[in-house]
Write a structure and sequence with these properties.
heterodimer; A: 253 residues; Rossmann fold; 10 helices; 36% helix; B: 317 residues; mainly alpha; ABC transporter involved in vitamin B12 uptake, BtuC; globular
Chain lengths: 253, 317
C-alpha cells in the first residue's frame, strides 16, 4: 500500500507540490490530472523515490520509501518517465532484459528469460524483439519500455505521461494494456495523464492537482463532471455520455 | 559468440605487441636490456589499462562519449604540482631527485584535490553532473594559467628540466614505482569490478537506473573517485596522457557494439596496450627515438577526435 503524507517540494523558492496527502487504492488505476505545472510529474517522481520530498513522507507498506533498500524497492515499484534518452544501442529484448536487473543483478537465469518472453508477448513485440530501439517508431519504443517495466514484475507500476507523442491508435492500445495489467494481473497503476478523456474512460480513481495542491481526489465518476472540472481547469467543460463513457468536450469551451 | 572472437583477436594482438617489444632484437641480452624493457612494458600496460578503464567509466557516468577525465582538471593539477616543485625547490631538491617523493606528492595532491572537489560539490545534494564538469573545466583552466605564469618566471635551465615532466614518457620509469602503481591500480580494479553490471544499467540514464534499483547518485560519486585515483596514479607514473583514453574508449564502442561494460572495458584496456606498446615499439625501432609516443598519440587522437565530433554532429542533425 502506498500512502503519501503531507509532502512538499520546492524548486528554489517556488513550491511545486504542497502538502499533498493521498492513499493509493491497490489494484486500481489512479490517474493524476491537472493543468501544466500543477506538480503531477514531481509528485510521481517523489512517490517513486526518483526525487526526495523536502518535507513529509511517502510510505510503502508503512515504511518510508527512502528507508527501503534500492533493490528491494525496485521489486515492488517501477517507474517509467517521459523521456528515455540513452547513450547505448540496445535491442528490445536487451532492454526488456534490464527489467530483470533487480532480481538477476545482470545474470539472466532461465526463469528471467521466461519473464522476458512473457513481457514481450504481452506487449506484442515478438516479431521485432531483436530490432534496435533507435530503429523503432515512437509507439513501438514506448511499448518496449513498458515491456521492461512489466518484466520488472512489480505490484506498483508508475507511468509519467506514457501517451506523450503517441497517435490515437497507440494511445488506446497502451491504455488497454494497462487496464489488462490491473484486471488480469492485479497490478496497481498510477499514471500521469494529459488527456482528460483517457483518464475518464480508463481510470478507477482520479487525483486532480492544481498549483501543487490536490483539488479533487476520488472515484472517476465523482471527478468527471462540469462542476469539478471547472474547479480544476478554470474552464466550462460540458460532459457527455457516450456508450457508457463520459467524454469531456473541452475543445470549444 | 562474435564478441568473444573479437576479444581473442585483440588479446592476441596485445600479446604480440608486448612480445615484439620485449624480444625484438634482444640478441640474448637477458641481463641488461631484458629487465629494462620489461619494466617499460609494465609501465605502459598499467598506464594504458588505468586510462582506458577510467575513461570508459567516466563517459558512462557523464553520458558523453567525447569527454575524458582530464576535463576534471587533474592533468592541469599535475602540471601545477610539478611546476611548483621546480619553482620553489628546484631541480636538485628531494622532490625531484627522489622518484618516490615526487610520485607520492603528485598522486596525493591529485587525489586530495579530487576528494575535496567532490565533497564540496556533492554536499549541496543534487547537482547535475554537468555542473561538476563545468567547475572542473574552469578550475583546470585556472590551474593551467597559474602553471604557465610560473613557467614564464622560472629559471630557463629549470624550465628545461621541467619540460621532461610535461609530456608522457616511458623512457625513464622507475622500477619500484611501477610496482607501487601496479598495486594501487590492481586494488582499484578489484574494487571496481563488482560495479560492472551496475554500470550497464547506469548507461540507461538516471531515472531508469534508479527504477531498476541501482543507487545512481551514490555510484556516480564512487565511480568518479575510482576514475580519479586511476588517472592520478597513471599521470604521476608517466605524465599527462589522458587524452589517449578517448581514442581507445571510442574504438572499443565501435569495435564491440555492445552495452556490456565488462566487454567494453576489457576491450579498451587491450586496445590501450596495443596502442601504447605497439606505438612505443614504432617510436623506438622504426623512428629511432626521433619523436615521442605522446606526440604521435596526440596527433592521431586529435584527428580521431575531430572525426568523432563530425560524426556526432551529423547524427544529431
Amino acid at each position: 500500500m502506498i500512502q503519501v503524507k503531507e509532502i512538499t517540494k520546492y524548486f528554489g523558492k517556488k513550491p511545486v507540490v504542497q502538502d499533498v496527502s493521498i492513499d493509493i487504492v491497490p489494484q486500481k488505476i489512479t490517474s493524476f490530472i491537472g493543468p501544466n505545472g500543477a506538480g503531477k510529474s514531481t509528485l510521481l517522481s517523489m512517490v517513486s523515490r526518483l526525487m526526495n520530498a523536502d518535507t513529509g513522507e511517502v510510505l510503502l507498506d508503512k515504511s518510508d520509501v527512502r528507508r527501503w533498500k534500492s533493490e528491494e524497492f525496485a521489486k515492488r515499484v517501477s517507474i517509467l518517465k517521459q523521456s528515455n534518452f540513452m547513450n547505448v544501442r540496445l535491442t528490445i529484448r536487451e532492454l526488456v532484459g534490464f527489467g530483470r536487473f533487480p532480481y538477476s543483478k545482470g545474470h539472466l537465469k532461465p526463469e528471467d528469460e521466461v519473464k522476458i518472453d512473457e513481457a514481450i508477448e504481452y506487449m506484442n513485440l515478438e516479431d521485432i524483439q531483436h530490432n534496435y530501439l533507435d530503429e523503432l517508431s515512437g509507439g513501438q519504443r514506448q511499448r518496449a519500455f513498458i515491456a521492461m517495466v512489466i518484466a520488472q514484475d512489480t505490484e506498483y507500476i508508475l507511468l509519467d505521461e506514457p501517451l506523450n507523442n503517441l497517435d490515437m491508435k497507440h494511445s488506446v492500445q497502451i491504455m488497454k494494456i494497462l487496464r489488462k495489467l490491473v484486471d488480469e494481473l492485479g497490478k496497481t497503476v498510477i499514471i500521469v495523464l494529459h488527456d482528460i478523456n483517457f483518464a475518464s474512460v480508463y481510470s478507477d480513481y482520479i487525483v486532480a492537482l492544481k498549483n501543487g495542491r490536490v483539488v479533487k481526489n476520488g472515484p472517476t465518476q465523482d471527478i468527471i463532471n462540469s462542476i469539478a472540472l471547472k474547479e480544476i481547469y478554470d474552464m466550462d467543460i460540458p460532459v457527455q455520455e457516450q456508450n457508457g463513457c463520459r467524454i469531456c468536450v473541452y475543445f470549444n469551451s | 559468440m562474435r564478441n568473444r572472437t573479437k576479444m581473442l583477436l585483440l588479446l592476441g594482438l596485445a600479446i604480440l605487441c608486448v612480445a615484439l617489444y620485449v624480444f625484438y632484437q634482444l640478441n640474448g641480452n637477458y641481463h641488461y636490456a631484458f629487465p629494462r624493457r620489461l619494466v617499460k612494458v609494465c609501465a605502459m600496460v598499467l598506464t594504458g589499462v588505468a586510462i582506458a578503464y577510467s575513461t570508459v567509466v567516466f563517459q558512462t557516468i557523464t553520458h558523453n562519449r567525447i569527454l575524458t577525465p582530464s576535463v576534471m582538471g587533474l592533468d592541469a593539477l599535475y602540471m601545477l604540482v610539478q611546476t611548483i616543485i621546480y619553482f620553489v625547490f628546484g631541480s636538485v631538491s628531494i622532490f625531484v631527485l627522489n622518484a618516490y617523493v615526487n610520485f607520492l606528492t603528485a598522486t596525493a595532491a591529485m587525489i586530495l584535490f579530487a576528494m575535496i572537489f567532490y565533497r564540496v560539490l556533492f554536499k549541496e545534494g543534487k547537482r547535475p553532473i554537468y555542473f561538476l564538469l563545468l567547475v572542473g573545466m574552469i578550475v583546470g583552466t585556472f590551474l593551467g594559467s597559474v602553471t604557465t605564469f610560473m613557467q614564464v618566471l622560472i629559471d630557463p635551465n629549470e624550465f628545461l628540466n621541467l619540460q621532461s615532466k610535461m609530456f608522457a614518457s616511458f623512457n625513464n620509469v622507475n622500477t619500484n614505482l611501477v610496482w607501487l602503481a601496479g598495486v594501487i591500480i590492481l586494488l582499484t580494479f578489484i574494487y571496481g569490478w563488482r560495479y560492472m553490471r551496475q554500470l550497464d544499467v547506469m548507461s540507461l540514464g538516471r531515472d531508469t537506473a534508479l527504477n531498476l534499483g541501482v543507487p545512481y547518485d551514490k555510484l556516480v560519486q564512487r565511480m568518479l573517485i575510482i576514475s580519479s585515483i586511476l588517472i592520478a596514479v597513471s599521470t604521476a607514473l608517466v605524465g599527462p596522457i589522458t587524452f589517449f583514453g578517448l581514442i581507445v574508449a571510442n574504438l572499443s564502442y565501435q569495435y564491440f557494439n555492445t552495452y556490456k561494460h565488462s566487454i567494453l572495458i576489457v576491450g579498451s584496456c587491450l586496445m590501450s596496450v596495443v596502442a601504447l606498446v605497439g606505438g612505443q615499439w614504432f617510436v623506438e625501432r622504426v623512428f629511432n627515438f626521433t619523436t615521442t609516443l605522446s606526440v604521435i598519440i596526440n596527433f592521431i587522437g586529435g584527428v580521431y577526435f575531430i572525426y568523432l565530433l563530425l560524426k556526432e554532429s551529423r547524427s544529431a542533425g
